[in-house]
What does this fold into?
Amino acid sequence: MGKNKKSKIVVIVGGGPAGLGAALAAARNRANVILVEKNGFLGGNMVTGLCLHTFHNRAGEKVIQGIPEEFVERLKNVGASFGPVKIEKGHMYSTTPVSAEGIKMVTLQMLEEMGVTILFLSHLAQVNRDLKDKILISSIIVCNKGGFQEISGDVFIDATGDGDLAYMAGVPYEKGRPGDGFVQPASLVFKMGNVDIDRFLVKAGKGRAYFTPGEARKPLVVWFAATTTPWNDIVEEKGYFIGKDREWWGNSMRSGEFNINATRLPPFDATDPQQLSQAQIIGRKQVHEMIEFLTNFCDGFEKAYLLSVAPFVGIRESRRILGEYVLTREDILTGRDFPDAILQAGYPIDIHDPKGTGTEFTQVYGEGTYYIPYRCLLPRGVKNLIVCGRCISQTHDAHAATRVMLTCMAMGQAAGTAAAIAAMDEKLPPEVAIGKIQDTLHAEGAKIFA
It folds into this structure.
């Protein structure tokens, strides 16, 4: 995959929500796009079974639009999503249930339609700096069934979630919260069948969302928040990892089937291969402990059974690159406006305590909208690299708001747009006029300003 002199190449590493948004946007802006993905499917954390958070701010205004909105419409067309559903008594206004298998199909269709070259089952192994100009990346090396393969490009996008490309390029980064460096715990999602969710929520429900398929049919619970409080004595007696008074969540696309987001792994470094491997082991042990708890003690789960377990542990936090601007908690909560804003979002600050003692939700002031500036996507020290997704330049607290999947996909659209403009205009990403990026995003349906 050498460099084609007749076209400009944007190389993207990571095919999750951010990578999908980046690849589609770059291709639509005339770049030749190569997408490198470590799995044999696209979607990243979207295929773990979780809902997509969130299109709306807490006042109910749709703040995420553009490619994320188009993507969900494509899912709806094949019965793989209901679209955004309003939440009753939740920490956010709406959520979007999706089908994991539908995501795998629709992501592939959308990228193939745009002529994106996808290289599956390929891991980033090395990043090469330009020999003459050290501030530039000349190529990356990936490892796959063919051995080691070099891929050259004009602009590179890190959509790995963990900031792997930026890290290998020597970009400075931070990890964890101030003081002890602990990151938010990871979770392994699993799906159970034959669940009587209405009986369960009578006793343990804290929030829920319904979708009504038709006037003659019963509303379907598609998202819920629950607590272990009714079974605190059992949890304490058995020593279950979930702990007393723990809030956890579930969601569904079909009656009686629920994805369960309840496991909570001890603090570990997702960028350390040994710790990451151990996390997969602990995660599966927690899944089976949770199933034991649910089926033996919880109303509505007496006859439930395991349907599937997510293909990997879902990482909430790892590296955060240091960029031209570091987004802060105060920027999020006050909805600070930025002249170089490239998207707006509405998910609150959501911090799962690293030591497993609870989850802190802090709502954004006013209607709940905040903005992310382009500078947070531009890493220090490397000028033809753009970062998107949860590893952008931000503090631990700000990350807790921006890390969710729809926000990351919107970031990806901005990153892909900027990368294509830079490549086609033969400029570096920091040199591209922000007005041109914003105008292009606006023309393609993204919502940037109020």
About this structure: Residues 190-309 form one domain. The longest helix spans residues 273-297.
